[in-house]
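I hope you will forgive my troubling you with a question about protein structure. The matter concerns a single protein, recorded as an amino acid sequence and a row of backbone structure tokens. Please examine both parts with care and let me know of anything in them that strikes you as inconsistent. Here, with my thanks, is the record as I have it:
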Amino acid sequence: MRADARRNQQRILAAARTQITEHGSDVSMGQIAKAAGVAVGTLYRHYPTKTDLVRAVLTEFLEALVVWAEASAASLRAPGDAMVRIETLLTDFMNEAALNQAVKEAAHALGAVDIASEQADRGQVALRALVASAQADDDLRLNITADDLYLMMISAPTNLEKSARDRWLHILVDGIRQP
């Protein structure tokens, strides 16, 4: 992809995220193009439908999460690192997902919630490495799996106020820690 096309695509995704957050899923493609500083034709060339655009915004968010999990799993050095990384992952995911609640709702409304299998597989590998390491350190309950962490993330109450989300997260982390 040419450098200018890549810049346009980045501006479009950033504008879409902001516009959907501010105006909900009813925001027009024209409003998104204007906010991105591109012509509507450029927007449609990259994303023929709003569903395609919302899927791309969601995919970008999930890719950042997968990359973070992979980097965390690859950088484990000392006992206790894995549990700290798991807690950070859950906290960061909860905070980012809460900020992107409107994008999540738009994705559900437009049927754009499918996750690329390659992306999901990479995320699972990283989560399994973090779980195995935290369990080897005797920090994480032995009955917790990568699938459990995934389930916790996708069912997190991201639509609640921050104090309620923080309390939920505190209870969750206490529940998965090895007593």
Q: What stands out?
A: Residues 65 and 93 are 7 Å apart (CA to CA). The two ends are 51 Å apart (CA to CA).
